[in-house]
Amino acid sequence: MRLALAFASLALFLASPIASWAQTAGPSSATRSTIQADDWLQVEEAPERSRASAIGHDFGTKWSYTAGGDMDQGDRDIGSLSSNNVKAYYTASVPLHEKVSLRTGIDYNRYSFSVPEGTLLPNTLQSVALTLGADFEVNENWLVRFEVAPGLYSDFSDISSSDFNVPIVMGFTYLVDSNLQWVFGIAIDPLFSSRISSALDSPAFPGIGVRWAFADQWTLHAILPEPEIQYQATDQLQAFAGARLMGGAYRLRQDAGDGQGRQDFNNVVVTYREVRLGAGLRYQFHPALTLEAEGGYTASRTFNYKNEDGLTYDGGGAPYAQIGLKGKF
Question: How many domains does the chain fold into?
Fold first, then answer.
C-alpha cells in the first residue's frame, strides 16, 4: 500500500502535465492523426501549421468534499475527519518553433480539514506555484516535457523561505499510433518522502502509463493521477470510472507542535495522500468548455510527518463528491 501511495504523490507532479501533453502534442505534419487538445481524447487530424503557431490556453477549477471518516493514530481512534479541496490552474503554451513550445502558468491547491481535538493534524494544507517548462518533439514518435513548479507549499500560517519548494518533472511520451500512446517519466520533490520502507526515503518517483483506445467509444486512460476507463456516449457526453490519487508535501508552521507540547513537530514537513474510487460524467457544453461531476468513495487518507517520530495518521472510508470546469482554446 505504501508503494501505491508513493506513486500517488508522483501523480501530482508528474502524470497530470504529461497526460495533458499526450492529449495535446503530436507530430507537426498536418496529414498524420494525433490526439486533440481536449478532455475527450478523441483522435482527429493534426492542426494546420498556422493554427499550431497560436498560443494555447488551458485552465480549470474544481471543488470536492469528503464526508467525515474515522482517523487512527496506530491502534488509537482519534475521531472523525472531513475535508474540502479546491484547485485552480492556468497554463499558456507558447510556440517558439515548429517542435518547441514554452509553458508558463500558475497553480493553486488547498485542502481544508475538520481536525479532531487533541491531535497534531493541520487545519489546512495549501500551495501556490508557478508552472515553468517546455515541450519538445524529438521525432514523429517521441515527445519530451521538462517542467518545474517553484512556489510555496505549506499551511500558510507563517510563510517563510522554508515553505519554498521546486518540484521537477521530466517526462517522455511514445506515440505508437493514434490509438496507443505510452508515457514514462520521473518526478523529483525535494520536500517529499516516499516512506516505501525504513531503508528507502527518496524524493524521486518513476512512473509509467498508457492511453489505449481499444474499441469504438472505449478508451483506457491508465495514467496517474487519474487512471480511468472512459466511454464516449455522444460527441458531447463522456462517462468514466476510475481512481483519483491526490496529495503532496507541505511545510507546517513554526509552532505547529506547541499546543500539544511537541516542539519536535514545529516547522516539519507532512506528506498528505488520498486515494479515491469513483465515477462520473463530462459534458462539453461549448467547444472550449467542459463541465465535470463525479462521486464515489475515499478509500484512504494518510498524514505522515517527516521527523524522527515519524507520526502517521491513517483513515478513509467516506463518500466524496466533486464538480469542476475545464477550458482549452
Answer: 1
CATH number, domain of 284, equals 2.40.160
Q: Please tell me the distance from the alpha carbon of residue 179 to that of residue 118, in angstroms, as a whole number.
A: 53
Exposure string (b/e) for 268-292, b if CB count within 10 Å is 16 or more? bbbbbbbbbebebebebeeeeebeb
DSSP code for 252:
P
Exposed e or buried b per residue across 238-265, where buried means at least 16 C-beta atoms within 10 angstroms of its C-beta: bebebbbbbbbbbbbbeebbeeeebeeb
Q: CA end-to-end span of the chain, whole Å? A: 39
Beta-strand (E) ranges in the chain?
A: 33-35, 43-45, 56-73, 76-97, 100-113, 124-137, 142-148, 151-154, 164-165, 168-177, 180-188, 204-215, 218-222, 228-232, 237-251, 269-286, 289-306, 312-315, 318-328
251: β partners: 154, 269
In the block, cell 485552465 appears at: 59
74 to 231, 302, 310, 312, 321: CA distances (angstroms): 41, 12, 11, 7, 28
329 residues of the chain, pLDDT tens digit each:
333 333 333 343 334 444 444 444 443 333 333 332 233 222 233 333 344 568 999 999 999 999 999 999 888 888 999 999 999 999 999 999 889 999 999 999 999 999 888 888 999 999 999 999 999 999 999 999 999 999 999 999 888 898 999 999 999 999 999 999 999 999 898 887 545 444 445 677 888 999 999 999 999 999 988 999 999 999 999 999 999 999 999 999 877 777 777 777 888 899 999 999 999 999 999 999 999 999 999 999 999 988 777 788 998 789 999 999 999 99
- Residue 166's domain comprises 2-328
Which residues, in sequence order, are bridge partners of residue 293? Answer: 281, 323
